[in-house]
Amino acid sequence: MSDQQQSATRARTRQAIIDAAIGLLAQDRAATLGEIATAAGVGRTTLHRYFADRAELIAAIDAEGELRLEQAITRARLDQGTGAEALLRLCQEYFELGDLLSLVFDELQGTAEVPCPGPDEPATGAGGSEPAGQCTPALEAAVRRGQHDGSIDPGLPAYWLESILWAHLYTAWSVTTQGNLARYEVLRLTLRTFEGALAGPR
């Protein structure tokens, strides 16, 4: 096996461990490294070759979470369409993160300052206490565009709408985990209610 093939295999194995950890920890925060190794289809010894301990694996999961949140923002194309269309795309992209949302909300619940920064406070980046992308210039620009094109209530500031977005996602995640509604129906209801929140009173 060439060095390039070995490197690709190592990358796939590492990613499989991270993906398995996200899936298991979303269901059970106490999942053991042995259980994660089994879910990833590797032995415990193999897992330790990639991650020396639980803390190292958690750090890798955090980095993966930040990457996926950033990728969701990119896929949402916040600079295209009306402001409301852009935010609805972002809502759907975040929703599609699935198990990762559970870990995001768990982290937020353990943070003293959960709300998004106010209009005179600095926005928090990927290394801060809020999810990556929260109150980014791109999101604020989409809100301003929506207020100009009439798709977003001008009385609703970006930091407020960002908090409303995550509140809707939390509700969607909670309902999805209960299993009472099909996932597509949860997404439909989430987008419909978020769209109404963006428009404000009629």
From TrEMBL:
It comes from the Bacteria. Keywords: DNA-binding, Transcription, Transcription regulation. The keyword Repeat does not apply. Residues 11-69 form the HTH tetR-type domain. The keyword Protein biosynthesis does not apply. Residues 32-51 bind DNA. Pfam families: TetR_N. This is TetR/AcrR family transcriptional regulator.
